[in-house]
TrEMBL record:
The Reverse transcriptase domain, residue ranges: 1-263
UniProt name for this protein: Reverse transcriptase domain-containing protein
Provenance organism: Phytophthora ramorum (Sudden oak death agent)
InterPro entries: DNA/RNA_pol_sf, RT_dom
CDD domains: RT_nLTR_like (cd01650)
PANTHER family, alphabetized: REVERSE TRANSCRIPTASES (PTHR19446)
Amino acid sequence: SRKQGIVRLLYKKGPREDPANWRPICLQQVIYKTYAGVLARRFTRWLAANGRHADAQKGFRTVNGCGEHNFLASTLIDHARRSRRELHMVWYDLKNAFGSVPQELLWEVLQRMGVPPAFVEVCQGLYQDAAFTVGNAADGPTDLVRQLVGVFQGCPLSPHLFTAAISPLLHARERLKDTGVQLSADDRPGASAYADDLKIFSGTADGVKRQHALVADFLPCTMSIQRDHRGVLKACDLELQLDGARIPSLTMNASYAYLGIGNGFDHVRRRIELVPALTQLKDDATALLQSGLAPCQVVKAVKTYLFPRVDAST
């Protein structure tokens, strides 16, 4: 069946015996991924044409989202230093975000966005009776497991469904008054999001507390936070909590890695060297050429996985 996939667990980091340190990537039939790719293209075009994207969300869009967010992060800290004003930041890393988002939330959000009912029904049909097996389990392939929650990681449509699911949170944050940081007369950002990597910030303690309260109300109904992947940048103790646990604060010389770049009081501008990045690109490209993949697959892998790394290094 085209709705049945094979999940491969890919190791990320940390203790290998911890299931949370493995990323489940679902391998699906070509016909399914082609169909889902067509749906993804139509959905993203509809979102852009109808202005449904949250300004803070840069994940899986045709913009250099990492570059924009990292530039904004350094701008905020530099602005606070020059103007001698307060700056408070809170970072959140959603736990198993793609695998835990409720499917009922997805369909309700799409309907409230005004997505055509026929398209919503098609998306629902993709997950009706969908299942997968874990192909590289320690004791061999597992039996079929129903996909009752979350979206398939590796499906072209999944990231866009996920970003749509958390858009109500970002839109609600935009409606909060007197929050964020006033950078100009018309520019008052208050959040950065790249898929499931979320950060809020404000020039006042009250502003960031109200934004955090909004996040704390939204997440328990949808997803959970990795307890060791969250933090607060502040000059005074805000005593923020999530799920009954206190969010740790950064020290003066500490930083939080957000989109690969450290955010902190004592952030250091790094001169990026292209030589190491290009050397790694050459090694990875050579490995792909020797992998036995078809030429079109090699080209796709280089464009999808290798070129973005160099772009992020410049």
